[in-house]
What does this fold into?
Amino acid sequence: MARKYWIILLIVLVVIIGGVVYYNNSRTETTTQNTIDPRMVMEVKKGNIQKTIVAEGFIEPIDEEALTFPSKSSGSVKVKKIYVKEGERVEKGQLLVELDETEARLNFLERQNTYNRAKINGSKNAIEEARLNLELAQNQLENLDLKAPFSGIITDIYLEEGSYYTTGEVATIKDTSQLQIEVSVEESDIPIIELGQKVEVSLPSLPGTELSGSVYKLGDEADNSNATVTLPVTVLLNKTDKEIKLGVSANLDIIVGEVNDKIVIPITAIVNDKGKDSVYKVVDGKTEQIPVETGLSNGFNIVVESGLEQGDKILINTFQQAPGFGQNQQNNRGGFMGGPR
It folds into this structure.
């Protein structure tokens, strides 16, 4: 009797366990086939994608120079005339500042007379000495006029008319025929930045204005002074008819990669399993995991080189929707995102 009881009990347990397994399998299959959220499905299309390095900097002139007169060995010279004002645009060779030539002309005449006398009755060394002194006096006389070395804007003047000049800076000139921006690029981006890459620029001081340029100088040495390693990179702006003030801030997108007219999908649609990429293709309400070959990514979207065709439908949120995703969800490249940008 006891043996019969245990047999019956065993049969009941088997039936119960079998029912639970069947119910769970049926529920999983139903969920797999019937719970694909239409909002998580997108139609594959072709598009364009850019990979960029984002940076910030300030508008600077392409060249600037601190202007000086030659050092005076015989005291100071009076400032006779200043012909420009701060902020004024000047042309190459234009006269900027003139020093009084009285003392220099007197010095020149004295040394000229000395040289003439030495030629009459002086020794060979005396003649050479007088000639060199005359040459120095002539150079000093000819360098009393300060002229612009290139066209640009005079941003600073450090003298006043009637004051005396001995040595040091007289003025600062900046060449604004083209503008540049120096930025710092993080160490991880150094291998992918190259001369000539296109740059898109926006200015907070000119909302809605889009400028362009290119990378034209890479620093020879990285900077590690602030606990992070960066490389100085100079961007040359293309000429524009917009009036841009020196020193204003600029936001840059340095284009380090670009692909056009390719299949582009959200990076969240990619499942990476053991280094191999795949997507979940939707056909007749069912999903099928298919391998794909991927290309350029900008962190949000990614190019699919092969495995998908325009018009295919795929899941764009594999983390929540992919059937049987299980342990593989940890290899997904991100959460939900929208379509290609």
